[in-house]
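User: I've been going back and forth on whether these two constructs are worth ordering. Before I decide, could you fold them both?

Assistant: Sure. I'll take them in the order you sent them. The first construct and its structure tokens:
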Amino acid sequence: MDEDGQYLYHPLENIEDVDLFYEAVERNHLTKAISPERPYTYWTIELYDQKNGIRGGGGLGVLAADTRRIAEKMDVPFALITPFYPYETHQVVENGLMRDEHISVDYKKFGFNFVDTVNIKCCGNLCRLDVIEKRFKNTRIIAITEPNFGELYSGMSGSDHRLYQEVALGFGGYAALKLLGLKPAIMQLNEVATFFAALARLDELVKNGMDFYEAVVYTRKHTLYTNHTLVQAAEAEFSYDQFEKYVFPNLYSPALKKWLSDKFTDGHIKLSSATIEIAELRSGVSKLHTRVANYRDIAGERIKFKPITNGIDMDNWVLPEILEFYKKSEIIDEINLPTGSYIEKLDKNLTADVVHELKSTGRKVMNEILKKYPDHNGKILHFGDDDFIFCFKRRFVDYKRPDLPFRDLQRLRNVLEPRNAHYILSGRVHTGDEVMNQKLQKLLEAIKSDDYLNGHVHYIPDYNEELAYGLSVGSNAAINVPIVGLEACGTSWMKDMANLNFLISTHDGGVADASLNSYLNISGDNESEELNMLYQRMEEALAANQNDFDLETIIKQQLAAYLPVISGSRMLKDYLDYLFPA
């Protein structure tokens, strides 16, 4: 930062600035302030921001929306670049089967303005992309779109259409920045689907006269690759033939084409291999993630990531009455960072009576939201203050194990029935994931086979942000049971914890940032032991909810350990400190 508190970087106005740039690098910082004309640029293939009319598929998109909102509150000039998909997918359950509905959306209805068009080259043709924009005080969403762009994650991950979408975001999005007169202070690439944005910048530097290797160094110094997954082997591959059709036609520099061609092995490329080479700055999304992520460069050396754990926009995800309590009690400050005395303030002010009162308010909010979302039986749900609700609300993918509590239906019934408790499931199955579709169908069939569970276990389809918020503020206990070592971070549990719910979780992802004694931990040497502990922890949560001392103790332990982790303001500050060290 400079003396005015501005984060610094170097703009590289022209080729003569190269020496200045290297001097700045030797001093280990860059040299000019971020400004509205030189914003922090954040690239994502997915944005999940229902308030601004963009529906994503999961946590990556939700995180992107939270990051922009946090940047707005922290007065950080910030441009989020993403596709606007003209169709969105909704899910319904009919006779126990999941069915997708595809609905067209119009960006004009959500306050986006048409700016102009840009062109990219694909398969020997010019493809025209509309540039649309929505501006806020200090931040903006810049999107590229066209009528045939399709849906988010349409087609197989290594398909031509998926590559076209990624190339359109990268080359089209970078052209959109130029159209708007913006120069990126930093390019944060969220996952490898955004790689082509950095490639477009590198190519432009060479086109403008910079030596190729100077351009590579400059691009690397100003590019952050944020990895949100754990296993490089799971990543899709593209062929050289696909690159000849969709990528190489958009490149000016022969040297860059040669550099990129060298990244292919047996005629195929993993984008992570190239992204690792083009970004010197690399971050993972939790402490555990950076320890276990197994990514290798082209020399076979393991890549090191800077741990910057994801956070949430508390203003968006926490019940306003709870947020007001945190601030009035001086537990968090005006930008939602924990105060220096937050642990003492928690201990003094957070009583069982306060928790019960705030949870009652949240229950009313949840009930209003649930009026719009019938369960899998078509029933509109309504719960009283005395109803205890366990909740699993996250993407339905195998490693998150949404079906784990249903492995022993009698044991689950024995947990729920004595206190007439309920279990709510909600989450999206990705289009085309037949394995999880079948698991969900079997799960629903198992619920229907038991008269008690059929009235106390509820699957709510078409999971979205509004439903996620309602279940966070109105439930009592969150179930988070990923297979340990497979969750990069996760943020659903953060929303639950901030809203005064018990967390019942394996020690994985961002949860592993703090001690396993800080919440109702699930562990075991095998899945059978984990399942047994899950039922035990559910029983403990039910008992604690009726014992004021235990209720206070558990909720205070959770918040004391995790409020610094949860804070999205902490996350953005960590990024800025990493990118622009003093």
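The second construct, handled the same way:
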Amino acid sequence: MNPPVSKQGFGIGASLSRREDDRHLRGRGQFVSDIRLPGLAEVVFLRSPHAHARLRSITVPASARGRVFIAADLPQMQPIRVVTQATGAKSPAWPPLATDKVRYVGEAIAACIAPSRAEAEDVAASVEIDFEVLDAVVHAPAALSPGGPLVHDQWGDNLFIERAVGGGDIEAAAREAAITIRREYRMRRQSGSPLEGRAVLAYRDYRLDEVVVYVSTQTPHTVRVAIAETLGIEERRLRVVAPDVGGGFGPKARLYPEEVILAALALKLDHPVRWIEDRTEHLLTAAHSRDHQYKLTAYANRDGRILGIETDIVVDAGAYGLWPQGPYQEANMAARTLPGPYTIENYRARTFTIATNKGPLGPYRGVGRPGATFAIERTIDEVARALGRDPVDVRIANMIPTAAMPYVSVTGMHYDTGDYAACVRLCAELLGVASIRERQRRGEPDGRLVGVGFASFTEQTAHGAAEFASRGAAIIPGYESCTARILTDGSLVLMVAIQSHGQGLETALSQIAYHELGINPASISVRHGDTETSPFGFGTFASRSMVMSGGAVARASRSLREKLMRIGAHLLQCDVAAVTCAGGSVLGPNGSVTIAEIAKVALCGWTGCPPGSSRCSRRS
């Protein structure tokens, strides 16, 4: 069925019904939990009930032998380790199944297998573990105190990394300040909780000599890289498939121990295995986020102008670093983005990323920026309160003026455009702030308090190579790929490396191809999520898919259009400069030829192609 035509046609900006919605609304999507294979066994993980403990012994009853796997049973698995170029950063080895110690509640100790989840849970309950419970590190600011418990004994402390960010002359700002505001803020730990939890299914394909891993992930290609490295197998022998994914929000953009363990089990066993995360497991073991503490000092003059900000930022990163970026990005992003939309010329931030006996920290909805935004916006309110001024006016007075665009902040962030003051003024006008202030002065008849608050923020999207390089990352997702392939009937297949998990990318990417080629989106298939068929790329996160994958689709489509026009011009017996591509055809001075006709000639009738033409596919 063709999508409805809007005034903009089918292209960029057109309002189309999302192609992927039909299968989901009819219950015909395919998630990992929908996949059924002969001989499939379910996996349940025996997890630590303690935040910190030594493993003295693990006793498997005779009735469960062959169905319980500990680290020693899967020697092919190597510890997961984040490689970073960041100066002074520590990167602990993370065994997928715990060996000597457990370092957070929920850490996997054993994988238990049975025909059903309930039976596997019974197997797990039959295993006995002798723990030596240790004191746990639970409060990040206190974790650096000498003499306390250590998460990783060999470190000698609990510090992942310490960094400094800033510029200008903060001491001069302090001397010149008429008022000084000192505050402490905390943003609590959070869980991503997508509609579909994590899920993995793995089996051995003997015909192709490969392990196939179905996984609910935002990043299938990099997950393949990591599993192959951890298991010591060639990537050609590992196929990762992300089918329909029920939400991600960032936590599914990392490698997890469960994905490595299931692949290792598939190599060892002669039948498929599957693990479906339950909600308790998700809350305990999927990437946590936030957990920041700020000590912030603001220096301002009597007009409310911020002369300088200095801050200490402590990030509770949990026990391990999730591959590939580790725990280092949270504090770095918070420190660099804290100045927000304000002209803060003097700034000093010290960041401390702390190891504690909690689940690992990972990306979720704006990595580092929510905490930083909360800290600076609350501080702007405090400056306004100290001066007796309206927070709206103080915000506007400190915002980057449009005349300064493009603007580079004191932390090196590049702002291309924006009129932040105008946004605040418009918001105040729409809310009727003047009348609200009058109500506040009068007071409410029933004694209730009426409040109104403002917060502004700047958002990074589609991070390029420079952002990841600034973090010392070894994996730098600076590009995306697309293979665009015309078939003999003129239909188009776009193979992309991003992974849609609710954004409607199958629809949006087909609109970009339509914009470039004029092929109806109903005749365009977008294929993603399978490392066997899609070109290499880094997946969907950080609001990057439409910028990077959309750009790759546009470039591939333009390259394909040039080839279609060359062949079309040859068939029309005219110069290529005289033809255009529109409406699914190549149009010349004296006629036209459809893309389907061109594709049939190019793929099946080589004698009709001009010299130098090749198959009608192009990768960009």
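Notes on the second construct follow. The two ends are 29 Å apart (CA to CA). The first strand starts at residue 41 and ends at 47.
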